Amino acid sequence: MQILVIEDEPRILAFLARGLEAEGFRVDGVGSGSAGLKRALAQPYDAVVLDLLLPGLDGLSVLRELHEQRPEVPVVIVSARSDLPTKLRGFGLGASDYLAKPFALDELVARLRVQLRRRAPKSEENLVRAGSLTLDLARRQVRIGALVADLSDREFRLLHHLIEHAGMVVSRERLLSEVWGYHFDPGSNVVEVCVRRLRKKLGADAPIETVRHAGYRLHAA
């Protein structure tokens, strides 16, 4: 998912970019309202994170213009302005959500995912199955029996890769390459940590098997 962050404070912009990229999003950052609007109209972003106190063109003006020309793009406002009139004006101009600064990055990520799920098409084409598992590509959810769990972007991509190769052993190195792109130290334990989180979410019936000295295998049966 491609996210545009429009924020004039370099420290906050860098923090948001790093945090969102760590969750698997692709992020572009812009430091002014006019440049942000131009970028948002020129490229097919999945969502926009928008500050209000911007140099030049203010955030509400950006929101108004963006909503008129690209109403399908969800906009999440993040602003130090937390008064009710400003919030109501933002929603009235087309904002999808509003977070007052300071905020937790995890909350922003969760709210972005809600918006992305809402605009995703609902279709059987978005479902991938392997044995007892059903992966919803639009909602980024996995179902096993009666259990339904939301997935982080890394969990989603790792499980998707295992489902695509169900019954086969997938090496740890291949998962690092396919899911993390080798942005992490090959000696890192990120794969093991992610698999452990997946197993916890899938419960006792988690069909992910560790093959000693070889990798991981998803049971298709």
Could you describe the 3D structure shown?
- The protein has 221 residues and is α/β, with parallel strands linked by helices.
- The chain has helices at residues 10-22, 33-42, 59-69, 84-92, 105-119, 153-164, 172-180, 190-202; strands at residues 2-6, 26-30, 47-50, 75-79, 97-100, 127-130, 133-136, 141-144, 147-150, 169-170, 208-211, 215-218.
- Strand 8 and strand 9 (147-150) form a beta hairpin.
- It is elongated.
Write the layout of secondary structure elements.
Elements: E1 2-6, H1 10-22, E2 26-30, H2 33-42, E3 47-50, H3 59-69, E4 75-79, H4 84-92, E5 97-100, H5 105-119, E6 127-130, E7 133-136, E8 141-144, E9 147-150, H6 153-164, E10 169-170, H7 172-180, H8 190-202, E11 208-211, E12 215-218
Parallel strand pairs: 1-2, 1-3, 3-4, 4-5
Antiparallel strand pairs: 6-7, 7-8, 8-9, 10-12, 11-12
Helix pairs in contact: 2-3, 6-7, 6-8
